[in-house]
Amino acid sequence: MFEVKTKEISLGNKKLSFETGRIARQADGSVMVRYGDAQILCTAVGAKQAKPGTDFFPLSVHYIEKMYAAGRIPGGYIKRETKPSESEVLTSRLIDRPIRPLFPAGYYNEVQIVCTVMSSDGESDLCIAAMAGASAALSISGMPFAGPVACSRVGYIDGEYILNPTPEQQEKSSLDLVVAGTKEGVLMVESEADELSEEIMLGAVEFGKKAYLPIIDMIEKLAKEVGKEAWAVEDNSKAKEELLKDCKALCEKDLKAAYALQDKQERTQAIKDIKAKTTDAILEKNPDTNSVLLAGALKGMEADILRLDILKSKKRIDGRGLSDVRKIIPEVGVLTRAHGSALFTRGETQAMVAITLGTAQDEQTVDSLFGESKQRFMLNYNFPPYSVGECGRLGAPGRREIGHGKLAMRALNAMLPTREEFGYSIRAVSEITESNGSSSMATVCGTSLALMDCGVPMKKPVAGIAMGLIKEKEDFAVLTDILGDEDYLGDMDFKVAGTNEGVTALQMDIKITSINHDIMTQALAQAKDARIYILGEMNKVIKTSRSELNDNAPKMTTIKIPKDKIREVIGAGGKVIRDICEKSGAKVDIDESGTITIAAIDQNSLNIAYDMIDAITAEPEIGKIYDGKVMKTADFGAFVAFMGPREGLVHISELNNERVAKVIDVVKEGDVVKVKVIGMDGNKVRLSMKACLETEVKSA
Question: Which of 244, 320, 493, 631 has the highest local Cβ count within 10 Å?
Fold first, then answer.
């Protein structure tokens, strides 16, 4: 019944294997990947025909982590997996990016890839396995996929590259880099680094490329044995050529003039009008013209005009040279009530960034296959439609917004203070108020400025830049600080962030089959020059973090108490700590080590909470007088609470200088009295009201 085929290789110190023919046989391509003890089912399904009117490639990738893979039941009320987590979204994007350019231009059939994690050992890299499985499923499906593609993760510890590091090794590594590509070259890079040089980053890419080649070989062998017959793809090349000729005759001159306009909105509107006029003219002449092919022909003409002009003149749409950066305008302190803020403008791209400080209670809880963890630094990137002069959907962030926010967060992570150095949780929100290319890198620059404006003790400022590429055969041009049109019609989106000492994040996506080492080297060199220039412009506004926190920021302090005192501060059912918070207005966090963090909106609130905790945790001093409250009376004396909830006994003989017949003749429950500590027996404290009276007499 089953015609099972398997392939296996050694990858590092683990086995990577593919199995097909047993599970999900109705999918066009289905592969069960096993890497160590991790198992991922990867499927690929494609539509045989494009939906009418579709003028884009509807590829969707879904990476799904099932909680049963780690022997866990999902948290929350529903007790089942619901919307994808941020981690799942990012992994889905990571798989999508190197696969997308390997389908032919003009291929508009829907393709869906689903990678379902069914078992996880907590050690094996699920991303690497899922990418390999998705590529294998496509390669055996018969779809027009110009793969295989594979990827590897690279760490860097003590001057050596580490292939697919374990979670423990990643903690020690100064680099987390994922590189994906084909045999011909690299298609995608995603990385976070701790100020590493361009040379080390390039070396990591080359190391990772060599490491993933055996995976590609295995996929090719599997495809030869079980691959389905290649799908027939409609050849529209002749029709496209004819339409391109018609378009050039009607509007090439006007389009060239439109692309000479340097203002984005003016240029965009002019191009839109020209294309609409040309479309109407061609459809009027021949109503049966395929509108999708016509739109493709117009885009092809646009690309030719922009690309060939750049290669020939070495000048850009806006008149800049290949390595020129647009005008930089950095500002800080622009929002009156934010804890820190900045407005970063680069040409027609602008990011407004606000910083909010909080406590450990405000940290993001991340639930994954491996349990819950806390995220102290959060960066949210928002891209409203008005930023490009359009109407559009507003709501929950999309995959692009999540990805851009994560990239900016990675760029800044290495320069943030440790939890011990700075106890606050940090939330940065970047509102893209204008966009014409590289808004994620504007977010990096704006967030760095806003953090320093807030007073967060950054190690160094961070800046980012987006690089582009125009490549025709052997001729190429690397572009610094790309515009939206240069990104849309170009061959590469290469984002580099870092300090004046090294790279902290790098992201590269290629729209052609691959690029070589020389192009990457030149792109990194130009990016470094641009980064240093931008940092210089940012330093004109603020060079280092402010010495004090913004007045609007919460006040915070910490107290270290013995572990055996934690129970006293919390109280039965949390009664004591709730009372402290209610009376002071402060937030109080206690960890298992006995470290108490107090945060409040002002110093007075902070002091009240501090004094209340200090009163509870401090040891009573013999001979010292305290304010107390009578909690209970008995025949032999009164129990008085002092130093918070701590209680001691005032024996009947210590109530007054004169003989007392009944305790209630002197005190009753609720009375506020002064007591002096006269002795201690373990946790039992002996108090005296009489001694306080004697002290007052002596003072008089």
Answer: 493
At the topology level, CATH places domain 625-699 in OB fold (Dihydrolipoamide Acetyltransferase, E2P) (2.40.50)
Q: What is the pLDDT of residues 402-438, one digit of tens each?
A: 999 999 999 999 999 998 899 899 999 999 999 998 9
CATH architecture observed for domain 328-539: 2-Layer Sandwich (3.30)
CA distance 446 to 335: 13
CATH number belonging to domain 555-617: 3.30.1370.10
Three-state SS for 440? helix
Pairing of strands 503-510, 377-382: unpaired
Architecture of domain 237-313: Orthogonal Bundle (1.10)
pTM (2 d.p.):
0.87
| Element (DSSP H or E) covering residue 244 | helix 237-258
* Cβ-based neighbours of 320, under 8 Å, separated by 6 or more: 326, 481
Residue 301 sits at φ, ψ, to 5 deg, of -70, -40
Q: What is the rounded end-to-end Cα distance, in angstroms, of the chain?
A: 104
Q: Return d(Cα 577, Cα 584) in angstroms, integer.
A: 11
Q: What tens digit of pLDDT does each residue of 307-366 get? A: 999 999 999 988 899 999 999 999 999 999 999 999 999 999 999 999 999 988 888 888
307 and 491 Cβ atoms separated by less than 8 Å: no
User: By three-state DSSP, how is residue 116 classified?
Assistant: strand
- Say how far apart CA 198 and CA 175 lie, in whole Å: 12
CATH 3.30.230.70, domain 5-226, yes or no: yes
In the chain, what are the domain boundaries? Answer: 5-226, 237-313, 328-539, 555-617, 625-699
